Amino acid sequence: MQPMLHSVILAAGFGKRLKSSLPKVLHSLAGLPMIQYSLRAVAAVSNKPPVLVIGHAAEQVQKVVGEQARFALQAEQLGTAHALRMAEPYLADKDGQVLVITGDMPLLTARTFQRLVEVHGNHPGPISMLTVVLDDPHGFGRVVRAADGSVREVVEEAQAGSEILAIRELNASVYCFDMPWLWGALKRVQLSPKGEYYLTDLVGIAVSDGLRVEALVADDPHEALGINTREHLAEAEAVIRQRINRNWMLAGVTIVDPQTTYIETEVEIGSDSVLYPGTHLRGCTILGQGCQVGPNAVVINSRLGADCQVAAAWIEDCILEDRTRVDAYLHLRGETHGFLSGRKGPKG
Fold first, then answer.
1. What is the mean pLDDT of residues 268-292?
2. pLDDT band at residue 94, thresholds of 50, 70 and 90?
3. Phi and psi of 305, rounded to 5°?
4. pLDDT at 210 > cutoff 60
5. Cβ count within 10 A of residue 346
6. Interstrand relation of 325-326 and 28-29 (parallel, antiparallel or unpaired)
7. Fold match flag (5-224 vs 251-337)
8. CATH H-level superfamily of 251-337
9. Any idea where the domains of the chain sit in the sequence?
10. How many CA atoms, within 13 angstroms, populate the side-chain half-sphere of residue 258?
11. CATH code for the structural domain at 5-224
12. Residue 4: which of 239, 206, 237, 179 has the closest Cα?
């Protein structure tokens, strides 16, 4: 019998480098707030609502997330270990395991979480962690392995010597812990010179107690991308867009030029549809089977029936009946149409 799996998402940070009044985890990626990707991924591996640790603009985050999570407040941002301690009142009396992630890593997938949980279930130690191998270390802590392959320590870049800096296996800040061990160990984490308490110190605590720490290397290094700047947002958007386009092509949709086609996360597309270059499908748009959209068309929060044709037009909050044709340069908003054709008359 598998142990019960709980989850905690750390999302209390300011996101200062984004230079925005909007909380970091509410910035949009492919039509969804960033935090939604973390919520959906953990929901796929645990049927228990996650504990979301919030701090900066807490009420704003709560309003967006709603009933998808339970909320723990980190009033002072004193590091990741301190943030996790805020979740203890919700989980301290629980048995099993807890998956701990950060809310600013939207590219992590449920498949990776499931693999990490499986690794954790197959070794006796209290910690399993996700790592990533990158040529550019991005300032991440280095993962130092013991001779038996277990993790010996995580060394932050600022404290690393030249030999450690040469290591390219990096800490991805995703962990699976045994909960009965975790809460006592968190109380042993010492305040750092920067005045914060770090989760990485738990690795050293476990090793000093003679316990094993296991690591799983992520298959896709992109998953470890954390969002700290607008540049990171653009990088993550490109990866998500590539995933979305690939999934629709596998589902029977022709995308003539995936590099210039933008499909948001909530969009639905019928098979045998063709999307031409410059097409943007946004919001809760639904396309029926056999539609042809583009080039250079924008469709927002609209429903298109089967076999519709939309040229270089802007369609927003509309319903198009089956076989409707919309010619170029039309802007339709909040309307219902059947067999509409710009200047050419209806098409049967």
1. 98
2. confident
3. -70, -170
4. yes
5. 11
6. unpaired
7. no
8. Hexapeptide repeat proteins (2.160.10.10)
9. 5-224, 251-337
10. 15
11. 3.90.550.10
12. 179
